[in-house]
């Protein structure tokens, strides 16, 4: 058995001639003798109807501009029959192409349609097919061109060592002007915005909600001012307020105020709803 | 040592090693300018060139690693690569290397490269068969094809294009270097 020769499927249809026992199989056997699975493998490697059609045109040395549609259609259908008989599952595209070929064939029999305003040559019913075939031919050649390029991980491999993680930031090139400018900037910042040196990261609303609930754990009301930390500045007040509003929204806490502008007292609602809701 | 280059100056001690290490640490090909910026601007380009020259001479004897010189955007660039002779050894250690590209994948990639931005529908029209989603996925995963957004037409089809990694992995300087698509097959040469 030399079927291994056959299984090395050629990549392009130019050299798609199957070999059986080392001998090229140029013609389909006329008596329908099918050597092992060679034919099936060979037929399966067509990339679609355009590929099959191009193969037929090539094989019979046909001028692509003068495709004898009737003849090619017949051969195309023969191949489809053959593929069906080999139980190859035919994609719908093959049948669509068959229908298209039949349509072109019948159009060829009709007198050419006049083209309207200008007296150009009548449209060749095959024109679109030719364009599709040429486009596909270009695609296969482009693919071949790409395949011949030396390719990474096939023909060459990138050599790389990874630098250690957490490299320190590179030193910033500095000159005297830059240094003085930076210094001035810092001084100005310091004098104007001293109160604003609040770090934002530690203030998470979730965290604050938990802290507030914890502070109210005994069920005793506490004045609202207990929960504001002056050192945190405006951001702290904002986070605290949002946290309380969020808690109130989930019915975990509530507050009361006896007089306008008087002190606000925060208290916890009934024990059943104390969990901070992750998804309100 | 007689492999002293005549025109190039003597690189200072350590520069050859530094250049080698920089090339190792970067997977991108590096130009003289890029190397110069990393080594320090006070080092003359000629010295870096001399260092590269030394490195190339040293790696000449190396069976598997070579200093590859390419030209992109009009500038020579250098990169250290392992030659294909390494492939069988790598394969023995790691059988899960990228599979070879099928014809369908190559044709799809070719259409994306030449015809970008291109939609799946246009690929389908050109190849005459439905686009296998696995192929686009494979090409995307290998970093060669990316989405360029959606076309503002009915169905908002996704437009595909190639990545810089595609050019690099196939050793193509720029998309302009691709041969003219129309001339790959014309009406003149198909009826041979």
Task: Give your account of this protein's structure.
Chain A is mainly alpha-helical. Chain A has helices at residues 3-7, 38-44, 49-59, 69-85, 92-109, 127-148, 176-192, 205-215, 233-249; strands at 19-20, 23-24, 156-158, 222-223, 253-257, 264-268. A 3-stranded antiparallel sheet of chain A has the order 4-6-5. Chain A has a two-stranded antiparallel ribbon with strand order 1-2. In chain A, a hairpin with a 2-residue loop joins strand 1 and strand 2 (23-24). The longest helix of chain A is centred in the middle third of the chain and has 22 residues, at 127-148. Chain B starts with 14 loop residues before the first helix and ends in an 8-residue tail after the last helix. A 3-stranded antiparallel sheet of chain B has the order 1-3-2. In chain B, strands 4-6-5 form a 3-stranded antiparallel sheet. Chain B is of the alpha+beta class and 192 residues long. In chain B, helix 1 (15-25) crosses helix 3 (45-59) and helix 5 (103-115) packs across helix 7. In chain B, strand 5 and strand 6 form a beta hairpin. The longest helix of chain B has 15 residues, at 45-59. Chain B has helices at 15-25, 32-39, 45-59, 87-93, 103-115, 120-127, 133-141, 164-169, 181-184, and strands at 30-31, 65-72, 75-83, 118-119, 145-150, 158-162. The interface between A and B is large, with 47 and 50 residues.
Question: What is the element layout, followed by pairings?
Answer:
The complex is a heterodimer of chains A (280) and B (192).
Chain A: H1 3-7, E1 19-20, E2 23-24, H2 38-44, H3 49-59, H4 69-85, H5 92-109, H6 127-148, E3 156-158, H7 176-192, H8 205-215, E4 222-223, H9 233-249, E5 253-257, E6 264-268
Antiparallel strand pairs in A: 1-2, 4-6, 5-6
Helix pairs in contact in A: 3-6, 4-5, 8-9
Chain B: H1 15-25, E1 30-31, H2 32-39, H3 45-59, E2 65-72, E3 75-83, H4 87-93, H5 103-115, E4 118-119, H6 120-127, H7 133-141, E5 145-150, E6 158-162, H8 164-169, H9 181-184
Antiparallel strand pairs in B: 1-3, 2-3, 4-6, 5-6
Helix pairs in contact in B: 1-3, 5-7
